[in-house]
Design a protein that fits this description.
The complex is a heterodimer.
Chain A (H helix, E strand, L loop, with lengths): L5 E9 L5 E10 L4 E5 L6 H8 L7 E6 L2 E2 L5 H7 E4 L3 H4 L5 H11 L4 H14 L15 H13 L5 E5 L7 H13 L3 E5 L3 H7 L2 E6 L2 E7 H5 L2 H6 L21
Parallel strand pairs in A: 3-8, 3-9, 6-7, 7-8
Antiparallel strand pairs in A: 1-2, 1-4, 4-5, 9-10
Helix pairs in contact in A: 4-5, 4-6, 5-6
Chain B lengths: L1 H17 L4 H4 L2 H16 L14 H9 L4 H18 L3 H4 L3 E5 L2 E4 H27 L1 H10 L4 H29 L11 H27 L16 H19 L2 H13 L1
Antiparallel strand pairs in B: 1-2
Helix pairs in contact in B: 1-7, 1-9, 3-7, 3-11, 4-7, 5-7, 7-8, 8-9, 9-10
The chains are: A alpha/beta, B mainly alpha.
C-alpha cells in the first residue's frame, strides 16, 4: 500500500435502535495529513472512527482505506494499516503485562518471535515507556497507560493512526508530552477530540461534525476563528486564540 | 467503603511479592504448580478422622515461605480471610457425628469434632500452599503454566481476563458505593434498593466494557487465539525440586511420622 489515504463517500449509519449516527459524510484525507475531528458530544465522532477499522459498517455509502474498500474481505488489510487508540486505555490494555499487550498485535499478525520482541521494545522506546515493560497495566498512571496504548498500536507499524480523545484525563504535563510525541509521528493521523488547543497544535486541517453531518472541513485556524460556525456546532474558540481573560485584549506577544 | 480499595491494594501485593529474586521465584512455574497440586492431592486424600498425620505437611508451605522470603503474617491474614468458609462447611459435623472416638480424662471426644478439626487443617494446608504458589509465581504466570500443561485455552483466557478486570470492576464498584455513601447522610439510604440498582449498573457497564475490549482486540488482529510470549525452561533444577518434594509427600502420606515418634518415645520410657 503506497498511499495512506482515506476516502469516505456519502457515509450513512443508522444504529439498530433507529438513531441516525451518520447522515451522509464525504471526505478525502491524503497521505501524511493530520486531521482533527471535532464536534459536540453525540455529533458522531466515535461512530465515524468505528467505521475506519470496520467495527461498524455503513448502512449506505462507502469507505476505502489506501484504496481498499472497507469490507469483510479486506478487514485484515484495513486493520493492519489503521492503528486505533481508544479513549479508555483500560479497554485497550487487556493483557497481563505491558510487554504482552504491546506484543499482542504483532503476534496476531504472525511476525517471527525475534522480530516481535524488537518491535515491542522499539515501540515502547518511542513512547518512552520501555521501563514499564514487565508491569501489569492496572498499576500504571493515566499518562503511562496512554503511552502504552499508543505503543501497542505502533508495534503493528500502522500507516494511519486513529485516536479517540487522546488527551482526555491527562494532567497538563502528560498532555504536553503526548502532543510532543504525536508531533514526531509522520503517519496519516485522525484525532477526534474536544481539546481544540491540541487540535490547533497538531492538525493543519479540521473536520467539524454536527448531528452526523460535516458542517465544515478546512484549515484548522480558519475554522476556529469562525465564531458563528463554532457556536452552531456546539463548540467554543480554543483558549489559545481567545482574548486575554484579564484585560479582554487580544494577546499579541 | 475504603475497605474495597484497601483489599484491592492487597491483591496487588501478591504480584509485587512474585517479582522477588530467590531461586524459588526463578523456578519454572510448571514445576511449582505440579508440586503444589501433588501436595493438595496428598493432603486431601487422608481419611476423614486423620489429624496427626497431616501436621508434618506444614513443612511444605513453611519451607516455601522461608526460602521464598515471603511475609508469613501477611499470608496468614489472607488464610484467615477465607477461613469463615471452611468454618461453616464443617460446623455441623460435631452435632451429627456424636460417636465417641476417644477420651481425654473425663472428656469424651466425638468423631464429629475430630473430622471438623481435620477439615480445618486440610483447609489451612491447601489454602496456604495455593497462596504461597501465587505469591512466588504471580497469578498470570500460574495461568500460563496451566495452559502449557494442557488446560483448555478458553478456561485460561477466562482466568487471565478475570484477574485483569477484577481491578477495573472493583474500582467501578468502589466509585458507585462512594457516590451513594456521600449522599446518604443520617438516613438509611433507602435500604437495599440502591444496591440492587448498583449491581444492575455494574452489569451493564461490564457488558459495555466487554464489547469495547472485544473491538479493541479485533482491531489488533484477534482471531480467537491469545498469543503470549513467555519462554519456560524445565531443567535439572525443576526435576530436583519436584522429585524431592514428591518423595517427602510420599513419605509423609504413607508413614504417620508423629505416631511413629510417639510410639518410639513411649517404647523408650516403658
Amino acid at each position: 500500500m503506497s498511499h495512506h489515504t482515506i476516502d469516505a463517500k456519502d457515509l450513512h449509519y443508522i444504529y439498530p435502535d433507529g438513531t441516525a449516527g451518520l447522515n451522509g459524510i464525504s471526505f478525502h484525507i491524503g497521505h501524511g495529513e493530520s486531521v482533527a475531528l471535532v464536534g459536540a458530544n453525540g455529533a458522531g465522532k466515535s461512530t465515524l472512527l468505528m467505521h475506519l477499522n470496520g467495527c461498524l459498517t455503513a448502512t449506505q455509502g462507502g469507505l476505502s482505506i489506501g484504496g481498499y474498500p472497507v469490507t469483510a474481505k479486506n478487514l485484515k488489510i484495513v486493520r493492519r494499516s489503521v492503528g486505533m487508540v481508544f479513549q479508555d486505555p483500560d479497554d485497550q490494555l487487556f493483557m497481563p503485562t505491558v510487554f504482552d499487550d504491546v506484543a499482542f498485535g504483532p503476534l496476531n499478525l504472525g511476525f517471527p518471535v525475534a522480530e516481535v520482541e524488537h518491535k515491542v521494545m522499539q515501540a515502547l522506546e518511542t513512547v518512552g515507556a520501555s521501563h514499564l515493560c514487565k508491569r501489569p497495566p492496572y498499576k500504571l498512571s493515566g499518562g503511562e497507560k496512554r503511552a502504552v496504548a499508543i505503543a501497542a498500536v505502533l508495534s503493528m507499524s500502522p500507516d494511519i493512526l486513529v485516536m479517540d480523545e487522546p488527551s482526555a484525563n491527562l494532567d497538563p504535563r502528560a498532555r504536553r508530552r503526548l502532543i510532543a510525541l504525536l508531533k514526531t509521528f509522520e503517519h496519516t493521523k485522525i484525532i477526534a477530540t474536544h481539546d481544540l488547543d491540541m487540535a490547533m497544535e497538531l492538525c493543519q486541517r479540521t473536520i467539524v461534525l454536527h448531528q452526523g453531518m460535516i458542517t465544515a472541513d478546512g484549515p484548522t485556524i480558519g475554522i476556529f476563528q469562525d465564531d458563528a460556525l463554532l457556536a452552531d456546532s456546539g463548540l467554543e474558540k480554543p483558549l489559545g486564540i481567545q482574548n486575554c481573560p484579564r484585560c479582554g485584549n487580544r494577546c499579541t506577544g | 467503603m475504603l475497605n474495597i480499595d484497601r483489599n484491592l491494594f492487597d491483591i496487588g501485593r501478591m504480584d509485587t511479592l512474585a517479582m522477588g529474586d530467590t531461586p524459588l521465584h526463578h523456578l519454572d512455574p510448571r514445576a511449582k504448580l505440579m508440586t503444589t497440586l501433588a501436595f493438595i492431592v496428598a493432603v486431601v486424600s487422608f481419611g476423614k478422622y486423620e489429624l496427626s498425620a497431616m501436621i508434618p505437611f506444614f513443612i511444605f508451605p513453611l519451607a516455601q515461605i522461608a526460602k521464598g522470603d515471603l511475609p508469613f503474617m501477611y499470608l496468614l491474614r489472607k488464610v484467615m480471610i477465607v477461613a469463615p468458609f471452611a468454618l461453616f462447611i464443617g460446623i455441623f459435623n460435631p452435632l451429627i457425628d456424636r460417636e465417641t472416638l476417644f477420651r481425654l480424662g473425663s472428656i469424651h471426644i466425638s468423631g464429629g469434632w475430630i473430622s471438623y478439626l481435620s477439615i480445618l487443617m486440610r483447609f489451612a494446608l491447601t489454602v496456604m500452599a495455593a497462596l504461597t504458589l501465587i505469591a512466588l509465581t504471580g497469578f498470570n504466570t500460574v495461568c500460563l503454566a496451566l495452559e502449557k500443561l494442557g488446560v483448555p485455552r478458553p478456561f485460561v483466557v477466562q482466568l487471565l481476563f478475570l484477574y485483569r478486570y477484577l481491578f477495573v470492576l472493583t474500582d467501578e464498584a468502589a466509585r458507585l458505593a462512594r457516590a451513594r455513601s456521600l449522599r446518604v447522610f443520617e438516613s438509611n439510604g433507602m435500604g437495599f434498593k440502591p444496591f440492587a440498582s448498583m449491581v444492575g449498573h455494574l452489569l451493564l457497564r461490564t457488558l459495555d466494557r466487554a464489547q469495547r475490549i472485544h473491538i479493541a482486540m479485533c482491531c489488533r488482529g484477534f482471531e480467537g487465539h491469545i498469543p503470549i510470549l513467555r519462554p519456560m525452561r524445565f531443567g535439572i533444577r525443576e526435576i530436583r525440586y519436584m522429585t524431592f518434594w514428591a518423595m517427602v509427600f510420599a513419605l509423609l502420606r504413607f508413614y504417620n511420622l508423629p505416631m511413629q515418634m510417639g510410639l518410639l518415645i513411649t517404647r523408650l520410657f516403658t
